[in-house]
Amino acid sequence: MTTDVIHASSTRTAQFPYPVLVEQQAEKGWVAQVMGWTECRAEGSSRETAIAALQQILSDRLAAAEVIYVDLPIQADLPTQVTPPIQETEHPWMKHAGMYENDPLFEQVLDEIEAYRRELDASR
């Protein structure tokens, strides 16, 4: 397992966009919560105050922490994507395939269709 550490200096900050759920609730006013981080939420009387309070909570929390990325090993013999088994079923129109195989008029119908298409193309 490898770890890439992103070091942040105290004089420079980087933007780290993250989804935040902001909703109005009858009893609490406005609530802002970081998606996937249930304990990181703030309330406010307006949308803006809830978001500002959440940003302050995040700033305080991340001031003494760091964000890192960790590479997790994946076993080579395991599938990386789980797909449902494919059921072998016949296409619903396959029962009609070849139904005009021995019909002497079939070739004439195809010739008429082709002639009509040529006629349409010529009129454009």
Provide the CATH top-level class of the domain at 2-71: Alpha Beta
Count of strand segments = 5
Q: Do you know the CATH architecture of the domain at 2-71?
A: 2-Layer Sandwich
Oligomer category: single chain
Through-space gap between termini: 66 Å
**Helix-strand string:** EEEEHEH
Q: Extract low-pLDDT stretches.
A: 5-11
Global structural class: alpha+beta
Mean pLDDT, all residues: 83
The largest β sheet comes out as: 3 strands, antiparallel
Rg on CA atoms, Å: 32 Å
Percentage beta strand: 15-25%
Provide a descriptive summary of the structure in words:
The protein is an alpha+beta fold. It has a domain at 2-71: Double Stranded RNA Binding Domain. The chain has 2 helices and 5 strands, in the order ββββαβα. The strands form 2 sheets. A 3-stranded antiparallel beta sheet has the order 2-3-4. A two-stranded antiparallel ribbon has the order 1-5. β2 (20-25) and β3 form a beta hairpin. The radius of gyration is 32 Å and the shape is elongated. 3% of the residues are buried. Mean pLDDT is 83; it is low at 5-11.
